Amino acid sequence: MFGLQYIWDSILQYEAVLRSPYFPVFFSITVYLSFCLPFVALDALSSRVSWIRRYKIQQKTSVSWKMMWSCLALSLYNHAVYIFPLSVLHWYWRPVSYPVMAPGLLRVIWDLAACLLLFDFQYFVWHLLHHKVPWLYRTFHKVHHKYTSTFALATEYSGAWETLSLGFFAAVNPMLLGVHPMTEMLFHILNMWLSVEDHCGYDLPWATHRLVPFGLYGGAPHHDVHHQKFKSNYAPYFTHWDKLFGTLHSE
């Protein structure tokens, strides 16, 4: 508790920044690009460094700077044209209050798990529908499947509807569950990391799916198969929904 309180007190020193309508977009793009950058470096080096390429899931593929720039440009465009105006409306409609006390550690863990599991379910339903209904796939989701070999900057390579609808799930879940603002920040950070890791294209020894036991978490290999096969592995993170609906496809 004392460690979390110290961190929260340090964050509250910048409360004026947190209350700015510019903060959500700045926070989102900064965290996202920070998580992408290490994998961009791996992609740049993998063709020349064999020990890096050995961890690449699709070893016969490569990522060009043109592909990365195309993905980055679309992500920046979506943030500027869609996410920023909506964040300003949200700032106006729902002013955020910041309590003095930090949440307890167990409560943070519980709320993070609840937010993540709820988002995983919402994403699974959304994703399944956008593959099973041809019009939804052609109109909204097809752009995200331009690249059958995943790489980090392709994480947010999507159209306006996909960006906004999935972003809506991520934004509304902490509100629905009534979590502490600190937990909400941690959820967005965790959610962005797991999403980038899903698309990174590498099966690294310390990857999340290797840390979670019993095959409960799919990770990058799980999602890479989805980008290759299209008709399996619809859940973004965990595997229980795909197992239940018979859509799980192992590597």
UniProtKB/TrEMBL annotation:
It holds the Pfam family FA_hydroxylase. It is found in: Membrane. One of its GO terms (biological process) is lipid biosynthetic process. One of its GO terms (molecular function) is iron ion binding. Residues 113-247 form the Fatty acid hydroxylase domain. The chain crosses the membrane at residues 22-46, 67-93, 105-129. GO terms for cellular component: membrane. Keywords: Membrane, Transmembrane, Transmembrane helix. The keyword Coiled coil does not apply. This is Cholesterol 25-hydroxylase a2. It comes from Cyprinus carpio. The gene is LOC109099495.
